Description:
Bound molecules: zinc ion
Strand content: 25-35%
Largest sheet: 11 strands, mixed
Cofactor: a divalent metal cation
Number of strands: 17
Binding site for Zn(2+) 2: 160, 187, 290
Binding site for Zn(2+) 1: 51, 160, 209
CATH superfamily of the largest domain: Zn peptidases
Oligomer: single chain
GO biological process, one term: proteolysis
Structural class: alpha+beta
CATH architecture of the largest domain: 3-Layer(aba) Sandwich
Number of domains: 2
Amino acid sequence: MELEALTKALGVSGFEDEVRQRILNAVGGAEVDEFGNVVLRGRSKVAFVAHMDEVGLLVTNVEEDGRLRFRKVGGVDDKILPGSSVVLYGDGFRVEGVIGVAPPHFQQQQQQVTWQDLYIDVGASSRQEAEAMGIAPMTPAAFSRRYVEMGRYVSATALDDRAGCWALLEAYRRGAPATFIWTVQEEVGLMGARAVSKNLDVKYAVVVDTTACCHPNWTGGVKPGNGPVLRIFDNYGAFNNKLAKKVLEVAKRRGIPIQIGSGGGGTDAAAFFVSGIPSVAIGILTKYSHSPVEMAHREDLRNTVELIVALAEELSQ
Ligand SMILES: [Zn+2]
């Protein structure tokens, strides 16, 4: 499966059906649990994990004049909302929308806007018109899709974490012996991973996610293009020292570039940790995280697949 196809699937947290379907189409014999996580069990002691969901918006109210009030799903910066275009979606429909902002002509002075001042405009002039398009409270809105190659980078919507989903699929395609898990609702508190990790017979979990680039204190001296990042610490503190050392050892032995860094936020690794499964997170450095123009270096994507394959082979016993 191409990374482009995965980034073009819509998957706001809790509404990951399109992403799940693409993954199920690409692998045989996977199960879907009660929560929507996809689990492909292998005869192995190691599980690789990536999350299917992305940050976005959720319609909370359709106003009488057809405007849509919304709330944010996951960590979205208010500053990127005005002027964004979004896609609202549900059973059998996709509707284009924009988040409008008053034009500069009408502004006395530049004002700070928050998400609560904003609304989504889908071109409906009444509640009935919006409802006829399929829109109702609980309709998700994802950022409009975009996928371009720029220099040695890919810039796309939802690289967080379709890049990880893709890397797992590539490793699977190459026959890596492992259990593969694609989780739901990571961006709203690692919910899918919390559920699935309670019900899993593996010795290790290696989470493959993006990691925000770059800040001298938060991330350390990591750089795009220099390899996947072993996240030694983040806001959840999820990091297993023993497993991390093994990962470094395997990467070194196989000649796979790897960097050591730390992250803000957290990953599904924390959920496995509290369920008693030693876990680490491998991060694909991503510029402009949680915006519609995330960027990842192609060499890092390629080396992440190499690292997963190597770890699967060496940790599977
Ligand atoms: Zn992520």
